[in-house]
Automatic annotation (TrEMBL):
Molecular function terms, GO-annotated: ATP binding; ATP hydrolysis activity
Keywords tagged on the record: ATP-binding, Cell inner membrane, Cell membrane, Membrane, Nucleotide-binding, Translocase, Transport
SMART domains referenced in this protein's UniProt entry, alphabetically: AAA (SM00382)
Protein's UniProt name: ABC transporter ATP-binding protein
InterPro entries to which the protein is assigned, alphabetical: AAA+_ATPase, ABC_transporter-like_ATP-bd, ABC_transporter-like_CS, ABC_transporter_ATP-bind, P-loop_NTPase
Length: 259
């Protein structure tokens, strides 16, 4: 019998406690009892009230922290630190202002030791995918917020990571740009077939983008709802007849989780 493919992401019995500064032994329980298995090509969106451990979950997958309990694996390999198999996009893109757009996208590729011509070809491909082919020569201070976030996405995608992690990627953008970026990320996901894990406060965004939606409870964060959705694969998810009912159900779960 053929082997089932490894999950793209697997969390088993994951818990995380932060140590409180200056108080020996005192800890803040941020996450507890997280079991999650995500298939390649899915887009998992994590929602939950403030302080429910969403960013902590993403940081554990990114390898910025080691879990206090349990294990995190990406493509069957335990996560022991940050690595090129995971691309990260933050809420406020951390771009290098002295570099051009292309230089920023090439940065990780240069660190990985790729030759100049190869770096350039990959960067140009990614910039075209995010609609910035004509902006490659600009400095990042010449860009709008949405353009900066597109550069950050191109940079995360360039090394071809197995999974892309996005921590509130549109949280700092105005409503119109945010909507446009949601649509762009959905198209990019359909086009590239990448596995994505993102975090948002916006339940509508979660339903528009997530093929899997997980709701975390308030501290410590535990999974209170884990739902598969086909909406992002179907045309314009915001106009789908199931959109409103799904959004209301998830919003209700988030409100209940905050109590
Ligand atoms: N570095 C840290 N040291 C101590 N406590 C922390 C640290 N980072 C987060 N916490 C605490 O862990 C809990 C979970 O935080 P986390 O940022 O993961 O939640 P979140 O759901 O992403 O919140 P938000 O939606 O407000 O960004 C919170 O109570 C927070 O105060």
């Amino acid at each position: 019998m053929p082997h089932a493919p490894e999950p793209a992401l697997e969390l088993t019995g994951v818990g995380h406690d932060y140590r409180r500064d200056g108080r020996r032994g005192a800890t803040v329980p941020a996450l507890d009892g997280i079991d999650l298995s995500l298939d390649a090509g899915e887009h998992l969106v994590v929602v939950g009230p403030s302080g429910s451990g969403k960013s902590t979950l993403l940081r554990l997958v990114a390898g910025f922290h080691r879990p206090t309990r349990g294990t995190v694996s990406v493509n069957g390999r335990p996560v022991r630190g940050p690595g090129p198999d995971r691309g990260v996009v933050f809420q406020r893109p951390t771009l290098f202002p002295w570099m051009t757009v292309r230089g920023n996208v090439e940065f990780g590729l240069r660190m990985a030791g790729l030759a100049r011509a190869e770096r350039r070809a990959l960067a140009e491909h990614q910039l075209a995918l995010v609609g910035l082919a004509d902006a490659a020569h600009l400095r990042t201070y010449e860009l709008s917020g949405g353009m900066r976030q597109r550069v950050a996405i191109a940079r995360a995608l360039a090394p071809d990571p197995g999974i892309v992690l996005m921590d509130e990627p549109f949280g700092a953008l105005d409503a119109l740009t945010r909507e446009r970026m949601q649509e762009e990320v959905r198209s990019l996901w359909l086009l590239t077939g990448k596995t994505l894990l993102s975090i948002t406060h916006d339940v509508g965004e979660a339903v528009r983008l997530g093929t899997r939606i997980v709701v975390l409870s308030a501290r410590p964060g535990r999974i209170v709802l884990d739902e598969v959705s086909d909406l992002p694969r179907a045309g314009e998810p915001g106009t789908h007849p199931d959109f409103t009912a799904t959004r209301d159900r998830i919003a209700h779960a988030v409100r209940a989780a905050a109590r």
